[in-house]
Each structure stands twice: as C-alpha cells, then as structure tokens.
Design brief:
globular, single chain, alpha/beta, three-stranded antiparallel beta sheet
Length: about 290
C-alpha cells in the first residue's frame, strides 16, 4: 500500500500495526533502498513501513510487500516525530527503526527470525534492546566514490570503546547500566563529526507503550529502555551495520578531500554473517543459545 503521508497511514493502517515486530525504514537518499528493504523483510518483520519521498522509485518485488509512506527528511520531515507517532499508535508492539543502506544483524539471524529473538528477550522482562551501529565502507573509493558497496564492504575490527554515561540530574554520577559507545568511522574521523553525533549506540529495537518518546540522541525518555542489560545478567544485543557515516563523510565538502581511503590496518572485509560480529564483540547473545 502507498500513503501520501504518515497521517494518512495512521488513519487507516489496515493490518500493518496489528502484530509485531514492525520495522520502520527512513529513506534519506536513493542509495541501496531496495536491498535494505529486502534484508529486513527476510529478517522476519511482520510489517515494514518505508518512509520515503514520493519521487523515489521502489523495485517491483518490494513495493507490494511494504507500506510506503510519503516522508521527506531532506525537506525537513522528522524521523523522530514519525517514530513517536507510530509508538503512540502501536502500544505493546515491538518496533524497529533504521535508515536506508543499513542492515540489522542479531545473533543466529541466519537461522532464526527477529520475532523469535524478541520473544526470548520479552521472556527476560526486557522492553528494549541495545544496538551498536557498526560502520561499513567500500574498500576501494576510486571504484565506489560514494563509499557504498555491498560486495566490497569493510568494517573496523577494533577501536571500539565505552564511557560512563553521566546523569546531569544527579551531580553527573554515572547512570546505572548505561554507557556511551564509540568507534568506527565516527571515532577515526571525529574532527568531521559533531560531538553529539559521535556515539554508535542506538536503541533500535523497543516495545511501544503509552508516553514513550524517542529523543534526538537515539535514547528514550524511559531510562530503563536505555540500559544495555538487566540487573542480574547480560542480555541480547544486536548490530545495525551501516554505510550512513561513510556516505556522509564522502559527500561533505569539508571532509571528502581529506579521505582517499577508509581502509587502515584494522579493516576487515565484512562477511555479511552474524558470526563475524559475535566474534568481534559487536553484539552479545546473552542467555540465548
């Protein structure tokens, strides 16, 4: 189905918000739109909402399988506002959001669905899941000047770290079970990245409830949603592998001429498999075996 706006969709969502998990994909440009949608359809989401400008094209094999909603981030439409409106309309459903040229990976995703993972996560009394946004980039920028290539994708195998997340309402003491995570291209090229955009953690998977709101820093107004684990043991985490930062660095006139290659001694080809991310410590299986 195609809707001219989010309001039109919410007025008549059909069965799209009847059962979760539901994916929301925000299309910022025309790079790898179809592959991003196919990946998330194959991951087992019950519905996929695609927020994109009306002028963009969709491949026929995905157009009939998604709810297409008119939304233009480049013209000022807010993805935060859109997520929060869907939250309000879908209490109790597990939701997920990402952008085009981003791909969700979770432990054992080659043989298990996202719904199976979230069913287990719910049994552990968790309503949100920490996701690390892992930067991908093309190995050869001469062949791929926009830094995007599924066949030549690379990632950093080290250079990730975490710092305590301070609570300004409690004398800047560290928040319980919350950390700010850094690494990847946002760390290596931090001089080109605004301070508020350097973190790589995102609560991309969460269960909607009344009053819940997404904030600009990819956290929620319920602090328990922003924790990486429950108090008694480690929980599942997932990864969103993303070309978004590489694209931005190569498109930005202030950085593109300083970058001739993103590869360094800690680069590795991305294998498009959850095992690699697990081995690198970029997601955690918790108690799910």
């Amino acid at each position: 189905m195609q809707y001219p706006s989010l309001s039109a969709f919410l007025d008549s969502p059909g069965t799209a918000l009847a059962k979760g998990p539901v994916a929301m994909i925000f299309v910022e440009d025309q790079v790898e739109v179809d592959s991003s949608i196919r990946h998330h359809l194959d991951s087992g989401f019950k519905s996929v909402l695609v927020f994109m400008p009306n002028a963009f094209d969709l491949a026929p094999d995905v157009a009939d399988r998604v709810e297409r909603i008119g939304h233009d981030i480049a013209s000022g439409d807010s993805f935060i506002e859109a997520v929060n409106r869907v939250i309000e309309a879908a209490p109790g459903l597990w939701l997920y959001y990402c952008f085009n040229a981003e791909y969700l990976f979770f432990p054992f995703c080659e043989t298990r669905t996202v719904g199976e993972m979230l069913a287990f996560h719910t049994e552990e009394r968790r309503d949100a899941m920490l996701n690390y946004v892992v930067d991908l980039y093309a190995g050869d920028l001469d062949r791929h000047p926009e830094a995007v290539s599924l066949e030549d994708a690379h990632l950093d195998r080290s250079g990730y770290y975490a710092l305590a997340r301070k609570d300004p309402d409690n004398h800047n003491h560290p928040r319980e079970r919350q950390l700010d995570f850094f690494g990847g291209l946002r760390w290596r090229y931090e001089e080109h990245i605004p301070v508020e955009r350097r973190k790589i953690d995102r609560i991309a998977l969460f269960r909607a409830k009344p009053g819940l709101e997404l904030r600009a820093d990819h956290t929620f107004n319920d602090e328990e949603y922003n924790t990486y684990a429950c108090p008694w043991h480690h929980n599942l985490t997932a990864a969103v592998v993303s070309f978004r930062t590489a694209k931005a660095l190569k498109r930005n006139p202030g950085s593109t001429f300083d970058i001739h290659t993103f590869k360094w001694h800690n680069s590795a080809p991305f294998e498009w498999h959850s095992r690699q991310l697990l081995d690198l410590g970029l997601m955690e299986p918790g108690q799910w075996f």
